[in-house]
Amino acid sequence: MSRKILFAAGEGLPYIKTGGLADVIGSLPKVLAEHGNDVRIVLPLYQGIIDRHYGELERLGRIRVQSGWLINQPATIYQAVTDGVTYYFIEHQGYFERGALYGYVDDGERFAFYQRALLDMLGFLDWWPDIIHSNDWQSGMVPLLCHVCFGGDERYQRIKHVFTIHNLAFQGNFGVEMLPSCLGLDYYYFDNGSTRFDNGISFLKTALVYADKISTVSPTYSSEILTSQYGERMDEILRYRREDLWGITNGIDTVEWDPQTDRRLAKNYGPKTWKTGKAANKAALQKELGLEILPDTCLIGMVSRLTEQKGVYLISQKLREIMSANVQLVILGTGEEAAESAFRWMENEYRGRAVYYQGYNEDLAHRIYAGSDLFLMPSLYEPCGISQMVSMRYGTLPLVRETGGLRDTVRPFNQYTGDGNGFSFYTANADDMVYTINYALKQYYDNPEGWDALVSSAFATDVSWEKSALLYEQLYDQMLGR
Fold first, then answer.
1. pTM score
2. Which domains are seen in the chain, by residue range?
3. Integer Rg of the chain from CA
4. ∠ at Cα 134 (130, 137), nearest 5°?
5. Which of 170, 177, 324, 458, CA to CA, is 20 to 30 A from 452?
């Protein structure tokens, strides 16, 4: 049964990306559209989209957006169709044509405008979704705005709302004056506690209160966020809404991430040709990065933001122990200065055996996934994670901490049954991580048949969006009473 679904998000591929949210927006709607649904996405028209895609966009017209006493400005609506999915873009030069997507002092005002504009856009288009699927704080006020600001319009009141938490740590917390000034809402919604967080308001908390259903990006993370350890001070309201909370594991775009067709690789390969394919990519990666070309040495790769959340300090404090083993280590990423400094030291200290590439390089990331033997991902918490699924898609065994989506997607090697598709450790402890690295190395060097079986199991792991899309359709149908 076809459904009309509008995705609201602060970013989305193939147009703009800063993190994993963009991957989801670029993949899940496409699969839902393939299932026969009418799926559309609305994004702000950022400078980065204008620079790369403006010629592809069709101008639909202009609307006036009035929200509170501060916002009374026009927005121009653009459209593009990609992979069967219609994208809408909301243009406002002052708010969105900037060097970055987020991190500005007026972010609350910017995304208040975006959310009110996307709701006004529905009347302009005369297209009425069954579901608005909002994602993260940038669209967290949509359920409340739809309910209150369009209270007399049955077309808006029929819309159901699902809100997906991609990372609970990012909450969109702003001053209480945002309610009347930019959102057109009475202080009543602060006084009754539904928007209140500390002495201000939270876009994310508001979504947790007013959305019909809440989802997050893995079953384990949906349980973790009910606790004070992982709940980012939202655990109380999440426990209250637990009957409406779904944990649905993300997938990846298996067309974009396919070693059999990836043009960035030195040699394409698949589940039956991975030995020669990975050997060629490993040699090419070693040559490209100035590593010693050692085909039999285990190459450990990591592609990550270098933040505490990603477990980078578990690595930095144990670099000497890690490098005392027969390994090569490649790290690609940027982030906190302390981590970057540690990895620059690593490269200098272990020249020819370790490389740190500061920054992000999409082409190199693909080659690291293909050329590595192990992929390191020791996150302190990880709502879902994409890198571990990409690494399995490329026949590279993930080594992860058992948290969130890492626990849900990586089955640790069982030496007695041979089962597994990677390696894992439970405690956020650097010694446990090093122990697991050494355990994995023992399998690599001393148990080649077992290692090969693990690689085959990694290739066989279903990391597509197909199963998850079906679960989202079940969620939508439950909301619609079907």
1. 0.94
2. 4-251+466-480 (3.40.50.2000), 274-460 (3.40.50.2000)
3. 23
4. 160
5. 324
